[in-house]
Design a protein that fits this description.
444 residues, alpha+beta, Phenylalanyl-tRNA Synthetase, Chain B, domain 3, EC 6.3.4.19, tRNA(Ile)-lysidine synthase, TilS/TtcA_N, tRNA(Ile)-lysidine synthase activity, nucleotide-binding
Length: 444
């Protein structure tokens, strides 16, 4: 048994390049069968290891029992041990997360810091093949996409999992063969969480139906992992080709025409939008809108998404834009990255830059105001005689709804638009042959 287990783990470590013999590695040691087996196997394989144990104080005396057990185990095997205590319930209450999530956050933050403190290359955790299958089944029940059906990875950053090649039964048989005891977490024996229900009821039923059920599901996970590599490459290429930020650096847009030509627009939307916090329901609704529901909006905690006439656009949620008075000529900071310079000059040359408005100073009355466009705003575009709604003008310029909302105007003391910032001045305030001084407003 020992030789077979040793060879399987050694081959698995080599195949996935998980550990280096020249480096120090931390073993996350709970005292349960899996982590105890991991400690013994890596020690016997000659890796340089130290153990780390977290006491979460969630199971009363049982938590203290586990700590005492790992102390004695490490002392017996001459393996350095690092211990830490957590008030997990207080952390969960403070951060408004579940006890399970709190323990996970605390554990992995500690492991990461410990790696830095002692110069360790990785943290070895004892997930095995049955854990990977349980995770796949949990994700399947929750309606996961392809990423959730690829099981637990051999490596995720600093965390490595050398025992994914072994079943739970192989681990227990191995410990029995070497006469090594371990502790049992009583919370794993109850059916109060989904994983335990799958472990105690679904897995045994699958094994009754087919003794190789878990092994075959694990093989399927391997096939899916290989298929995922092709999927990820295709998605990366599509994101690089389709996602643009021509308008502003923070806004990403995708052409509706190009999007609908993809083999799976829904898969593309999922991979593009999920990192911005949009959930699967919102993404499905976005996909439904591609048929022509223009103007539909969705919000995550950090971003806003818009299905516009010919694009899908997403940008960060920003603070509302406000009005600011410009009482006289001078330099004004509207926002950190938006400055206005206002000056009056006898040089009546007209700027051709979109970021500079040249107006007849005698026709403009202070104070001026910089503000966002409002519903119903009208102006007389330079070179025209009649009034035009600003929203219609921006629509003609093929501006997205995001751009319309960000559009600034400068108005005079009567709230008449004198400049649609960066776009066009109002014809009523244009420079003529009778102009003797000009008002220049420059956007920086």
């Amino acid at each position: 048994m020992w030789s077979n287990v040793k060879n399987k783990v050694s081959d698995f470590i080599g195949k996935h390049q998980l550990l280096s013999r020249d480096s120090l590695h931390i073993v996350a040691l709970s005292g349960g069968a899996d982590s105890v087996a991991l400690l013994h196997i890596l020690s016997e394989l000659g890796y340089r290891i130290e153990a780390a144990h977290c006491n979460f104080h969630l199971r009363g005396e049982e938590s203290n029992r586990d700590e005492l057990f790992v102390k004695e185990l490490c002392e017996k095997n001459n393996i350095p041990l690092h211990l830490i205590h957590f008030d997990t319930e207080e952390y969960a209450s403070l951060h408004q997360v579940s006890i399970e999530m709190a323990a996970r956050d605390l554990r992995y933050r500690y492991f990461s810091q410990l790696c830095q403190d002692i110069g360790a290359a990785s943290v070895c955790v004892a997930h095995h093949r049955d854990d990977a299958v349980e995770t796949l089944l949990m994700n399947l029940l929750r309606g996961s996409g392809i990423h959730g059906l690829t099981g637990i990875r051999p490596q995720n950053g600093l965390v490595v999992r050398p025992l994914l090649c072994l079943s739970r039964q192989e681990i227990e048989d191995y410990l029995h063969s070497i006469g090594q005891e371990y502790v049992v977490d009583s919370t794993n024996l109850t059916d109060d969480v989904l994983r335990n229900k799958i472990r105690h009821h679904v897995i045994p039923l699958l094994n009754d139906m087919n003794p190789k059920a878990i092994e075959n599901i694990d093989k399927t996970t391997g096939y899916l992992q290989e298929a995922e590599k092709i999927y990820n490459q295709a998605i990366r290429e599509q994101l690089e080709e389709l996602v643009t930020n021509d308008k502003t650096p923070e806004t990403q847009t995708v052409s509706l025409v190009r999007l609908t030509e993809l083999p799976s627009p829904l898969a593309f939307l999922h991979e593009w939008l999920s990192p911005f916090g949009f959930n699967s329901t919102q993404i499905q609704q976005t996909y439904t809108c591609l048929g022509g529901q223009s103007g539909k909006e969705f919000r995550s905690s950090t971003h806003i998404l818009l299905v516009d006439r010919d694009v899908v656009a997403v940008e960060p949620l920003g603070a509302p834009m406000k009005a600011m008075k410009l009482p006289e000529h001078g330099h004004y900071v509207y926002k950190e990255d938006i400055h206005f310079n206002v000056e009056i000059s006898n040089d009546i040359s007209i700027s051709k830059s979109a970021d500079c408005a040249t107006l007849d100073a005698e026709k403009v009355q202070f104070p001026l105001t910089v503000r966002p466009v409002c519903t119903g705003d009208v102006f007389v575009p330079f070179g025209m005689d009649g009034h035009k709604l600003v929203s219609d003008y921006l629509t003609d310029r093929k501006c997205t709804l995001f751009e319309k909302r960000r559009q600034l105007v400068v108005t005079d003391c009567h709230d008449q638009i004198i400049w649609l910032v960066g776009q066009r001045t109002d014809n009523r305030y244009r420079v003529t042959e009778q102009t003797t001084s000009v008002l220049r407003i420059t956007l920086k």
